[in-house]
Amino acid sequence: MSQSAYVKLVPASIQQVITIDELKDLLLYYRSITTKTGEQLSWEYAEAAFPYTIEEKEEAKGKWFYLKGLDQRKNKYILVGIGKEVDTDNEQHYIQFTLTDISTHGDKGKANEFCKFIASKLKGELHLFNGRVMYYYPKK
């Protein structure tokens, strides 16, 4: 059974709408900063911090993509997409991280890391896989 975590973009977030390309850029930025950290420590940290390739199918253009693990024994797949919830008065955009039935515990740990990074960068509201909520935006 698949599990999902969400980064919701609230009115206090840096931006209220995000595109797939912006989301990919955030993940690539995460990979670049962890690579630089590894270089400073003289350790090949990039593959450990971001052990995935970003893959997109033709029918998913602009909606979702998946992260495919480099070492299929440790990491398999994480689906990443964007969407919006529409209420009567407003709409709220979100980023969804989904673990498939074949995802590993390593995938879940990395998905949690990615969610926390993106939520902190965008100052969003993070709904974790276990149902808990973390608030990264300033409260009034």
TrEMBL record:
The lineage of its organism: Bacteria, Bacillati, Bacillota, Bacilli, Bacillales. InterPro entries: DUF1885 (IPR015062), Rbstp2229-like_sf (IPR036294). This is DUF1885 family protein. It comes from the Bacteria.
